[in-house]
Design a protein that fits this description.
Low-confidence stretches: 532-557
Distance between the termini: 59 Å
Radius of gyration: 31 Å
Number of domains: 6
Length: 626
């Protein structure tokens, strides 16, 4: 296979800080590689050097295969405000755009030979229907008004325009930095399917673990300035990475044991050391160096405390929000419960962030009521990220919030000690915040939210710019967090690990409650294919349409449970088991002879309630089972 890209001995330093040193690797045709590393280790810097937007320190080289078409997708998009969507995509369309421009200039100039040459090039590149191709791909990515100016686009729309410009050029090698940031779930799944099927060669940085697992066939891990390559997907990488660290540390222990033996030999006759075998002395120095090496993973430790939480969180009644023609929320009623973990999903621009701003009183509803608990203390992690003063250092920023922090176990520590838990060692405390990487700023922002000990965490796209190791720790913290959590996220893996149920934002203010994780919801959507309204029959493949019509005209058969009914049936079975256990315990208490009159009364009343509840649930169980 052709070697598409050769990277040789590239390095990057910022002052005394070394991001990476003498990194070398190659990318062959068909490779789909994800670059994985902690925040602040230089992933984006490495991609920028490959893209030619930055240079390597020293004599490093980046070499592409001659005449290969390469496309880069940056993390953030900066477009000229007066350019339309169509102009942006057309200009970034690669070779076809250049060929069309040459054809138009040839026609305008009237040079017959130039026109003939340009026509031949148009034929060869199949560029005659290029504008139609642009329209089709923009439509696929749900961008319908191609004449909108760049300054009117949201972050998600800019990302979709950038994707359209990249995909329309059909590059042979694609380099992407966090391609899923700012994309909604529908766009992420479209891109995931496209890249999974495409024969393109790919190098990308991403924190989206489902995306990474389903698209990539190789993982490159950057750790301690070294690149480790794993020929497999994300699941394989996790397994082999753990194996690598275990083997390395086992070899270190072996070297330590050997060091003790060699040290005893070296010390046995110190005065005669000069007569000892020189190779043994040299080997001793090598063993000594190897024995000092040990891989100790540095992960953030989230030990933040939480304020006391009462029974009332936020109660919403007939909530409605409208601004001009935009309806963000329509007739929404819900009482959030203590310890509840809710995920919020929906397309970009349907009102998810608006909803969070209503809950936090940053916006006032057009009508309806929002009643907040008296003990409520909200930690609101905004999509926009951290706000800091120019020139402000890390320690100054934290001291503005608190000098001392109370941890979950009640221990009080200083702000500088708390920074260490979030992987900000003393050497970074006086670093200016503007010098931090995007991921480090996000980590500092997360610290600033948790430092105030909230009992309701509202997180708007918390996974953007955080590395995978930090996400793993955050997920474990949120799973055990005793307070309530409301999360807006496009990270499917993150949602699956955390939330109890979902609010689905359908648009025009409609919000549906779904009992399950994101993967449950996708399974539900697939299982409901034939339960959709008749307007969708037109969209079905002909074979499926015939089967659907046949089903409609046939003798009615036993109806399958919907996904929600299946979930209800499973919950009833669990409830009946719990009620049976509770009834048995109360009966044992009543027959023990050790009850007070109050206990006898309470137990008798509760047994009556259990019998009624059991009858109700058994009737519903029979109804669903039949």
């Amino acid at each position: 296979m052709a070697n598409y890209l050769e990277v040789e001995n590239i390095s990057k330093h910022y002052g005394d800080r070394t991001l990476f040193e003498n990194v070398s690797f190659n990318i062959n045709e068909g490779d789909k590689i994800a670059l994985v590393a902690p925040n602040g280790t230089g992933k984006t810097s490495l991609l920028k050097i490959i893209a030619g937007e930055d240079s390597s320190d020293g004599d490093g080289k980046v070499t592409f295969l001659k005449d290969i078409s390469v496309a880069f997708l940056e993390q953030e998009q900066n477009y000229s405000n007066d350019k339309t969507i169509f102009q942006i995509v057309f200009e970034k369309g690669g070779q076809k755009g250049t060929i069309i421009k040459e054809y138009e200039e040839a026609i305008a100039g009237g040079d017959k030979k130039r026109i003939e040459k340009a026509i031949a090039a148009m034929d060869a590149a199949d560029a005659w229907n290029y504008e139609q191709q642009i329209s089709e791909i923009l439509s696929t990515l749900r961008i319908n008004n191609m004449n909108r100016k760049a300054d009117s686009l949201s972050g998600g729309e800019k990302k979709r325009v950038a994707l359209a410009a990249l995909l329309i050029s059909h590059p042979e090698l694609i380099v992407m930095d966090e391609p899923t940031n700012h994309l909604d779930l529908e766009s992420i799944e479209y891109l995931e399917n496209y890249l999974g099927r495409s024969r393109c060669t790919l190098l990308m940085v991403t924190h989206d673990r489902y995306f990474l697992d389903r698209v990539c066939n190789t993982i490159m891990e950057m750790a301690d300035g070294t690149l480790y390559r794993y020929n497999g997907n994300y699941s394989y990488f996790l397994e082999k990475r753990e194996e690598r660290i275990t083997n390395f540390n086992a070899a270190t222990e072996k070297a330590k044991n050997l060091l003790r033996t060699e040290l005893d030999w070296i010390r046995r006759t110190p005065c005669a050391r000069g007569t000892k075998a020189k190779y043994r002395v040299n080997a001793f120095e090598e063993i000594k160096e190897r024995a000092s090496m040990h891989i100790k993973e540095q992960n953030i430790e989230i030990k933040a405390g939480m304020s006391r939480l009462g029974k009332k969180i936020i109660n919403c009644k007939n909530l409605h929000y409208r601004w001009e023609d935009f309806i963000g929320v329509k007739d929404f009623s819900y009482n959030f419960a203590p310890g509840e973990k809710v995920g919020i999903i929906g397309k970009n621009g349907v009102g998810k962030s608006t909803f969070l701003n209503l809950l936090t009183a940053e916006l006032q509803p057009t009508s309806g009521e929002i009643d907040r608990g008296s003990t409520l203390k909200i930690g609101y992690y905004r999509q926009g990220g951290i706000n800091f003063k120019t020139g402000q250092t890390v320690i100054e920023f934290v001291h503005e919030i608190a000098d001392n922090i109370t941890l979950a176990d009640g221990k009080v520590i200083s702000a500088s000690s708390f920074l260490n838990y979030f992987l900000f060692p003393p050497s970074t405390h006086y670093s200016k915040i503007e010098k931090l990487s995007g991921g480090e700023k996000r980590r500092l922002y997360l610290l600033s939210i948790l430092i105030a000990a909230p009992n309701l965490l509202i997180l708007d796209e918390p996974t953007n710019d955080l590395d995978i190791l930090t996400l793993n720790v955050l997920e474990e913290y949120l799973k055990t967090f005793k307070g309530s959590v409301i999360i807006v996220s496009h990270d499917r893996f993150f949602l699956d690990k955390i939330v109890d149920h979902l609010f689905i934002f359908k648009g025009d203010g409609e919000i549906k409650d779904f009992p399950g994780s994101y993967s449950d919801y996708r399974d539900y959507q697939k299982s409901s294919y034939f339960q959709k309204d008749s307007s969708l029959k037109k969209e079905m493949p002909q074979k499926d349409k015939k089967e659907y019509v046949a089903k409609e005209g046939s003798t009615p058969t036993k109806r399958k449970l919907t996904y929600k009914e299946q979930k209800e049936l499973e919950q009833i079975e669990k409830d009946l088991e719990l009620l049976s256990s509770e009834k048995k315990e109360l009966e044992e208490l009543l027959s023990s002879g050790n009850c007070t009159p109050e206990q006898l009364t309470e137990a008798s009343i509760r047994i009556g309630e259990i019998i009624n509840l059991t009858d109700e649930k058994e009737l519903r169980w029979i109804e669903l089972s039949e």
